[in-house]
Every structure is written in structure tokens, then in C-alpha cells.
Design goal:
With 326 residues, this protein is of the alpha/beta class. The longest helix is centred in the middle third of the chain and has 14 residues.
């Protein structure tokens, strides 16, 4: 088969479409013939040499895919060859085929195009596990999403609105803010021109955000705590703003607030299986009813993954950038 390989870490040109051995299906796995994958920030870090796959995972980038089951491994039930699926991966999505633990498979939701389903697994599992399973966002509460126009952000807006929460977000252009408003966002904050702490307090009569979904890390740590409401929860899922920050413990104590930080890729298979099961139970009905949708900025050939990485690194996109096979 062919896959995107990384002979040497570097810029987008380091991504090479190469012939490689087919994956071998193990116990509890299925082989998926990939139709599409999607670009995530973790893929860029892997390309740069900063985020190696966990032990035993495929060496190729790609944390999600959609396609059709081509082979069923031993010990797998409930799936059949030919089923259209999407999958949460630890790696290997930028390829013609990938072996997937059966617990990380999801059926393509009714009404969603097979290619566009590749935009779902990573973002839906990230948002549901952090915002709902850990931070316990409830109806009537306010969620603040940093990077609201990203794949994660556009899904967080839709899911939060679907459960009856109020949504605030930060983005850097008018076009991005307008698209987020179309998805249902209530409070639009241009981080280039406005202070999100002031704006979220103004919009909530001084209370602050009940939950904050943060992709920036260190750069926003102190300001995020200031922006939290009493009993607020800060969920950190990225480090785009650095890895080391100073935390005012007194401010955290005064607000009786909590901070969580998670990554999805390195979690044990049992935890991923539990998250995927929760997503299938709670999110798939919303997708099939048309209440939420994957937001796709563009589709590019998988063999030209370098171009897709350039798009994501320039941050001009809204939603997900897909890599599709001919």
C-alpha cells in the first residue's frame, strides 16, 4: 500500500507518499480501507519530530479516518466486511489501509458523507470527553472555546448548543467569528482586538465562564483562571501557547475551580473504547437528526499532505482539512 511517511522531521516537504508494507490485523482489530483522513495539530507536531506515536501504533501520521472494512481480525464481532465506518486512531490515517481496534470504530452516521465522516472521530471524542465527561458542562452554563473556528471549536460550539449551554469563543478574524455565529455561538471575541477575560465577564454579568476549553496552554493559563466562574472548570487540550505557565493558586481556591489536562492519543485502549462508546450513545443521534454536522474547510489529495499541512499551519481554515484518496 501507499502511506505518508516522514523520512526526516521537518517542514511540510518532509511528508512523502511512499510504498510501505500493508498493516497486519491483530486480535480484536479490523482492517479499514481508507477513503479519507483529516489533519490535526498533533500530525504537524509529529512531522516536526516533537510528538512520536505511542508504542505499538502505526508510524504514519493521521489520528482519524473514514472508509470501509476490508478484513475482520480474530475476536471481533458486530462488524462485517464492507461496513462504512470512521475511526479514532493512534496513527496511520494518512494511508490506503489501517488496522484499527474494533472498540475505536464508529458507523458512519446516517446523512453524513463517507469522506466527511473522517472529520468526526478525533474532534467529537476530544470535545465529548473533555467538555462533558470531565468538565460536566450542563444546560444553562456558559462554555468559552478558544480557537472557535478550528475543527475542535466548531464541534464544541454545536455540541454545547445542542445540550442547552451558552457558547462564547475566541477567533482572530471577522470571517471566522461570523462562521461561528452561524453555528450558534452567542458571544464572539476577537482575541486580536479584545481581552477575552473582560468580554466574558461583561457578557455574563461578571460571573465568568463555567467551562473553558483551551488549546493554548501556558500563554492563557492565568487569564483563563481569571475568566472562570465560581466552581468553574478549565479543560486544557493543547500547548500552542507554550508548556510552562505560572498559576495563582489563591485565585483557583477562591473560585473553587478545577483544571484538567488531557491528550487523547496516548490513552489506554480501554479508555478510548469507553469514550467512543459514549460518543456513539450521545453524539451520533444528534448527527443523524441533523442537529450537528462536521465542518469541512476543504478536501485535498492524500498524496499532497504537505499542502494540507501548510493550510493548517497558516490558520486560514475554518473547521477541518481533509485528505482524500482518489
Amino acid at each position: 500500500m501507499y502511506a505518508i511517511t516522514i523520512p526526516e522531521p521537518g517542514g511540510p516537504e518532509a511528508l512523502v507518499w511512499s510504498e510501505v508494507p500493508d498493516p497486519v490485523v491483530g486480535e480484536g482489530e479490523v482492517l479499514v480501507e481508507v477513503v479519507a483522513s483529516a489533519v490535526n495539530r498533533a500530525d504537524i507536531l509529529q512531522r516536526q519530530g516533537f510528538y512520536n506515536p505511542p508504542p505499538g501504533a502505526s508510524p504514519y501520521p493521521g489520528l482519524e479516518c473514514s472508509g470501509r472494512i476490508a478484513e475482520i481480525g480474530p475476536g471481533v464481532s458486530g462488524w462485517a466486511v464492507g461496513d462504512e465506518v470512521c475511526a479514532l486512531l493512534a496513527g496511520g490515517g494518512y494511508a490506503e489501509k489501517v488496522a484499527v481496534p474494533a472498540g475505536q470504530l464508529l458507523p458512519v452516521p446516517k446523512g453524513v458523507d463517507l469522506k466527511q465522516a473522517a472529520a468526526l472521530p478525533e474532534v467529537v471524542c476530544t470535545v465529548w470527553s473533555n467538555v462533558f465527561m470531565i468538565a460536566h458542562l450542563r444546560p444553562g452554563e456558559t462554555l468559552l472555546v478558544h480557537g472557535g473556528s478550528s475543527g475542535i471549536g466548531t464541534m464544541a460550539i454545536q455540541l454545547a448548543k445542542a445540550v442547552g449551554a451558552k457558547v462564547a469563543l475566541t477567533a482572530g478574524t471577522r470571517a471566522k467569528l461570523d462562521r461561528c455565529a452561524e453555528l450558534g455561538a452567542d458571544i464572539l471575541i476577537n482575541y486580536r482586538e479584545q481581552d477575552f477575560v473582560e468580554e466574558i465577564k461583561k457578557a455574563t454579568d461578571g460571573a465568568g465562564a463555567d467551562v473553558i476549553l483551551d488549546n493554548m496552554g501556558a500563554k492563557y493559563l492565568d487569564r483563563n483562571v481569571n475568566a472562570l466562574a465560581v466552581n468553574g472548570r478549565l479543560a486544557i487540550i493543547g500547548m500552542q501557547g507554550g508548556i510552562k505557565g505560572e498559576l495563582n493558586i489563591a485565585a483557583l481556591l477562591n473560585k473553587r475551580a478545577a483544571i484538567s489536562a488531557t491528550s487523547l492519543r496516548a490513552r489506554p485502549a480501554a479508555e478510548k473504547t469507553a469514550i467512543v462508546a459514549a460518543v456513539r450513545e450521545h453524539v451520533w443521534p444528534l448527527l443523524e437528526a441533523g442537529h450537528i454536522r462536521p465542518v469541512v474547510d476543504r478536501e485535498l489529495p492524500m498524496s499532497d499532505a504537505a499542502a494540507a499541512h501548510r493550510v493548517v499551519e497558516e490558520s486560514g481554515h475554518i473547521g477541518k482539512v481533509l485528505l482524500v484518496r482518489p
